[in-house]
User: Which sequence fits this backbone?
C-alpha cells in the first residue's frame, strides 16, 4: 500500500512537471505579446519595452521557466500580468465559485441519475424504463449552454425566481450565494445525469444477470433486496469511473456555463487569461487543473478498492 | 387568488414610506477592465469604469468632444501657443486625503513621458518640454511646439491626475480626485464604487455604482430583461432591441461613437499599392447593405472621421456602390478576375460577420477573399505588429480624432504619403479652431481620395437603460460612463 502511494505521488509530480513544460512551450510559441495587448494600438515602442521590463518579459524564456517552477515549488504562483495581484488570490476567489458549483452539480446529477438508472434497470423493457431512457437520450443530446439559456429565459426573465446570472458572493450570505448557483448547477447536472443514468442502468443490468444475484434470489431474498444489496454495489465501479471523469470536467470545463451565467469561476478565468495573454495565470491554472485531475483519479482508484476489495488484493 | 396577491402587493407598496428616488445603479459592461489605472493600459473598459468617476484631469471632454475646465478652473495660452498657464482648483483632495496641487500636475506629466512610462498614449505628452509650479495653485506647461489639440488630449483619461503616493497601486486600488471612490472589485464579476462625500465639486445624486461584466450577448440581454441591470450603455445584442423597445420599462438610445469600421489594406503590398485597386474595392462594397446585415446601426463614411464631430464632412459618396465600375478599375489595374486575397478577421461581430458579407460583395467583382479568423492577441501580433504580413483586415478604429494614424512613420496600413503628412503637420500645430477644422477637412478629403483603407461606416452606440434614469451619455465619442450626472426620477 505504501509503495503504491509512493508510486502514485511520484507519477503525480512527473505528470505535473510535464504539463507545466508543455503549457509553457505552447504559450511561448503562440504569437502574442501581453504588453502590446495591454497598451493597445497607439503605444510607442519605448512604452512597450518599459512594460515588458516591468513584467519581466525581457528575460530569456528558459530563465522565466526556471523562476516560475522554482517559485511554484515554494508555493508562490506569481503576479498576474493584467490584474497585478497575486495569482493565488485570483485563483482562490474563483475556486470559491467553481468548487461549490461543481459539488452541487455532481450531487444533483448523482441523486437524479442513480435512482433513475437502478429503477430503469429493475423494470427493463417496461413503459417507465422506455420513458426514462428516452428522457436520458434527450438530456445527452441537449448541450448544457442551451439548457442554461433556456433556464435563464424561464426562471429568470419570465418567472423572476432566480437572477439571470452573476454570483452574489459569499459575503452576501450562504443562501444568496447558493441561490445564484442553482440554475447553473442544474444546467450542468442534467446532461451529466443523463449520461450517468444510462451507465448506471447498463451496469446494473449486467450485474442482475450474474450468478450471485440468482443465488441471492434462490436463497429467498426479494427482488428489491437482491437488487440493492447485491446487484447495485457491484454495479458501482463503472459509475464511479464516470463520476470521476465528470468531476474533473466540472472543475476544468465549466467555461461555457460560467460564461452563460457570468459566474466568476475558474473556467472563465482560464478563458479570459488566454484571451488577454495573462500567461502566468494560464500556466498556473493548467498546473492546478492537471493536479486536480490526477488527485481525482487517485480518489477514484481508492473508491474502487472500497467497492471491490479484490482490486487492492491483486496489487499486493 | 392571483388578484388578491396583486392587491396585497400594491397595498404593501403604497404603505411603504415615500422613498426619495433610488440612489444606486448597476451598469452592465461587456468586457472587464484588466486593471483600473487609465495611465497604464489602453483597454476601453478601464475608462468606462473610472473616467470622470474616480479620476479627473485638468480638463475634461463632454459627449461631443468639447474640452471643459475640470481640475483647472481656467487657463491662458501664450500668443505663440507654447505656454499654457493653468489656474488650479484649490482645496481638492485625493480619496486618500492627499492634497492636489501643482506638484501633482508636474508629477503626472513627467511620469507619463518618463523612460518607465507605460502610458498607452505617451504621444500626447511628448510635446511637453517642462511643467513648472510658480505657486501651488498654478501650473505652467511649456510645449516644444504648438499643439492644437493639447487641451483636448489633456482632458482624456490617459491624462488624469495621479497622486505620487498611489501611482504604483492604482491598478488594483485606484485613488483619484473624482466624485466616486473605489470600493471593491470582485474579479471576473463586478467593480463597486461609492460617492465621495468630500468631493470638491457638485456631489453626485447616486450613492453607489456597480459595474457588472457580462461578456456573452445573450446573457447580457437576459440580465437587462430580468432587471438585474439598470443600464447597459454599450449594448451588445442588437437582435433583441425590438423586444426591448416594445417594453415600457426601458429606454433604447442610439447615439454616435468614434468607432470607424474600416477594411484596412496593406498599402505596401501589390496590388493594394495601386490606388485604382483600393478605389475599386471601395466601389465594390455596398455600405448600407453591410450596416443592415450587421444590425447594430451606423452611418456610411468615406473617410476617417465620424458624424457628430464639428469638422466632419460627408464623403461617403466619393466611391459609391458600383460593381461595374469596380470591375473596370480592377481590369485597368491589371487585376485578373479570380484574384485571391486573404481577409484576417479579429473576433468582434462587425469583423467576423461583416467579413463574410464583404467577401460575398468582393466575389461579385471577381475577387475571392479567403477568410482567416484570428483572436485579438494574434491580430495585434501578426497584422498590427508585423504589418508586412497581411492583405486586408476589418477593424474598428475607436480613438477619437485619430487622423494621426495615417501620418505615422510606422503603422500597419503602410500608407506613406508625403502630401498627407505635410497637411497633418500643419493641422497639429494650428492653434486657431477655424483653421484646425479647415485642415481636418482637407485631411479627410485626402484620405477619401486615396482610400488607404476602405472606410465602411461609423458605428452607432446603442444604449439600453431603465426608463427612469436620466443623464446617461447617448453618444460615446470616448469610452466613458459619466455617472456623476446620472440620477433616477420617480
Assistant:
Amino acid at each position: 500500500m505504501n509503495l503504491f502511494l509512493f508510486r502514485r505521488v511520484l507519477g503525480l509530480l512527473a505528470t505535473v512537471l510535464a504539463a507545466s513544460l508543455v503549457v509553457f512551450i505552447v504559450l511561448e510559441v503562440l504569437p502574442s505579446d501581453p504588453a502590446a495587448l495591454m497598451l493597445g494600438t497607439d503605444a510607442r515602442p519605448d512604452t512597450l519595452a518599459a512594460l515588458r521590463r516591468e513584467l519581466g518579459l525581457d528575460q530569456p524564456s528558459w530563465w522565466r521557466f526556471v523562476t516560475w517552477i522554482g517559485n511554484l515549488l515554494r508555493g508562490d504562483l506569481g503576479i498576474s500580468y493584467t490584474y497585478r495581484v497575486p495569482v493565488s488570490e485570483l485563483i482562490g476567489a474563483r475556486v470559491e465559485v467553481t468548487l461549490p458549483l461543481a459539488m452541487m452539480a455532481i450531487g444533483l446529477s448523482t441523486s437524479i441519475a442513480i435512482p433513475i438508472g437502478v429503477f430503469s434497470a429493475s423494470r427493463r423493457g417496461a413503459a417507465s424504463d422506455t420513458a426514462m431512457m428516452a428522457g436520458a437520450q434527450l438530456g445527452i443530446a441537449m448541450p448544457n449552454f442551451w439548457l442554461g439559456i433556456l433556464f435563464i429565459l424561464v426562471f429568470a426573465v419570465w418567472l423572476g425566481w432566480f437572477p439571470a446570472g452573476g454570483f452574489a458572493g459569499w459575503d452576501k450570505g450562504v443562501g444568496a450565494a447558493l441561490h445564484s448557483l442553482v440554475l447553473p448547477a442544474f444546467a450542468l447536472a442534467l446532461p451529466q445525469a443523463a449520461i450517468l443514468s444510462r451507465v448506471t442502468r447498463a451496469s446494473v443490468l449486467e450485474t442482475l444477470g450474474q450468478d450471485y444475484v440468482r443465488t441471492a434470489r434462490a436463497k429467498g431474498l426479494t427482488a428489491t433486496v437482491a437488487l440493492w444489496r447485491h446487484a447495485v454495489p457491484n454495479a458501482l465501479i463503472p459509475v464511479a469511473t464516470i463520476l470521476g471523469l465528470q468531476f474533473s470536467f466540472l472543475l476544468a470545463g465549466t467555461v461555457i456555463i460560467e460564461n452563460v451565467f457570468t459566474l466568476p469561476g475558474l473556467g472563465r478565468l482560464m478563458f479570459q487569461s488566454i484571451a488577454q495573454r495573462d500567461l502566468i495565470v494560464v500556466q498556473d491554472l493548467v498546473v492546478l487543473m492537471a493536479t486536480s485531475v490526477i488527485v481525482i483519479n487517485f480518489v477514484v482508484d481508492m473508491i474502487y478498492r472500497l467497492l471491490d476489495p479484490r482490486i487492492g488484493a491483486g496489487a499486493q | 387568488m392571483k388578484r388578491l396577491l396583486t392587491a396585497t402587493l400594491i397595498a404593501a407598496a403604497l404603505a411603504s414610506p415615500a422613498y426619495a428616488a433610488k440612489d444606486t445603479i448597476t451598469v452592465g459592461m461587456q468586457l472587464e477592465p484588466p486593471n483600473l489605472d487609465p495611465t497604464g493600459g489602453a483597454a476601453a473598459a478601464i475608462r468606462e469604469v473610472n473616467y470622470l468617476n474616480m479620476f479627473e484631469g485638468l480638463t475634461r471632454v463632454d459627449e461631443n468632444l468639447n474640452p471643459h475646465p475640470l481640475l483647472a478652473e481656467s487657463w491662458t495660452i501664450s500668443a505663440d501657443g507654447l505656454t499654457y498657464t493653468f489656474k488650479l482648483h484649490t482645496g481638492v483632495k485625493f480619496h486618500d486625503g492627499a492634497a492636489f496641487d501643482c506638484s501633482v500636475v508636474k508629477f503626472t506629466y513627467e511620469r507619463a513621458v518618463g523612460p518607465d512610462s507605460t502610458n498607452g498614449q505617451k504621444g500626447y505628452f511628448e510635446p511637453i518640454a517642462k511643467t513648472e509650479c510658480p505657486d501651488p495653485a498654478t501650473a505652467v506647461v511649456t510645449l516644444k511646439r504648438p499643439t492644437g489639440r493639447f487641451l483636448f488630449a489633456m482632458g482624456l483619461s490617459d491624462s488624469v491626475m495621479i497622486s505620487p503616493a498611489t501611482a504604483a497601486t492604482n491598478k488594483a486600488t485606484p485613488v483619484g480626485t473624482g466624485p466616486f471612490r473605489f470600493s471593491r472589485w470582485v474579479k471576473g464579476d463586478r467593480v463597486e464604487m461609492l460617492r465621495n462625500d468630500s468631493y470638491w465639486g457638485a456631489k453626485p445624486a447616486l450613492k453607489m455604482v456597480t459595474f457588472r461584466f457580462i461578456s456573452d450577448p445573450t446573457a447580457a440581454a437576459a440580465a437587462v430583461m430580468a432587471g438585474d441591470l439598470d443600464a447597459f450603455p454599450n449594448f451588445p445584442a442588437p437582435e433583441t432591441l425590438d423586444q426591448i423597445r416594445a417594453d415600457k420599462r426601458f429606454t433604447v438610445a442610439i447615439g454616435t461613437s468614434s468607432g470607424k469600421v474600416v477594411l484596412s489594406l496593406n498599402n505596401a503590398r501589390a496590388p493594394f499599392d495601386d490606388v485604382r485597386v483600393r478605389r475599386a474595392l471601395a466601389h465594390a462594397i455596398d455600405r448600407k447593405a453591410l450596416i443592415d446585415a450587421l444590425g447594430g446601426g451606423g452611418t456610411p463614411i468615406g473617410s476617417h472621421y465620424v458624424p457628430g464631430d464639428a469638422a466632419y464632412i460627408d464623403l461617403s459618396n466619393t466611391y459609391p456602390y458600383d460593381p461595374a465600375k469596380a470591375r473596370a478599375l480592377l481590369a485597368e489595374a491589371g487585376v485578373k478576375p479570380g484574384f485571391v486575397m486573404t481577409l484576417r478577421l479579429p473576433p468582434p461581430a462587425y469583423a467576423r460577420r461583416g467579413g463574410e458579407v464583404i467577401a460575398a460583395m468582393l466575389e461579385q467583382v471577381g475577387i475571392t477573399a479567403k477568410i482567416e479568423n484570428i483572436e485579438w492577441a494574434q491580430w495585434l501580433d501578426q497584422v498590427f505588429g508585423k504589418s508586412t504580413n497581411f492583405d486586408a483586415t476589418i477593424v474598428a478604429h475607436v480613438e477619437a480624432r485619430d487622423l494621426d494614424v495615417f501620418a505615422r512613420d510606422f503603422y500597419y496600413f503602410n500608407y506613406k504619403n508625403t502630401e498627407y503628412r505635410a497637411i497633418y503637420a500643419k493641422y497639429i500645430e494650428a492653434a486657431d479652431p477655424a483653421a484646425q477644422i479647415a485642415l481636418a477637412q482637407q485631411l479627410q478629403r485626402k484620405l477619401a481620395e486615396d482610400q488607404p483603407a476602405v472606410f465602411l461606416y461609423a458605428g452607432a452606440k446603442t444604449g439600453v437603460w431603465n426608463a427612469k434614469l436620466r443623464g446617461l451619455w447617448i453618444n460615446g465619442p470616448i469610452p466613458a460612463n459619466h455617472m456623476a450626472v446620472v440620477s433616477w426620477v420617480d
In short: Confidence is low (pLDDT under 50) at residues 1-18 of chain B.
